[in-house]
Amino acid sequence: MGCDSVVTLNLLVNPTKSSSFSQTICSNQSYTWNGIAQNTAGAYRDTFPTYLGCDSIVTLNLFVNPVVTSSFSQTICSNQSYLWNGIAQSSAGAYKDTFPSFQNCDSIVTLNLIVNPTKSSSFNQTTCANQPILWNGILRNSSGAYKDTFNTFLGCDSVVTMNLTVTPLPNKATTTSVKTITASQAGATYQWLDCATRIPIAGTSGKGRSFSPTQNGSYNVIVTLNGCSDTSNCVTISGSGIENYAQEKIMVFPNPSHGQIFIQSNTLGTYVITNEIGQKVMTIELNAANKNKYHDIDLSSGVYYIHALDNPQLGYQKMVVTK
Question: What predicted TM-score, i.e. pTM, was given to this entire model?
Answer without folding.
Answer: 0.47
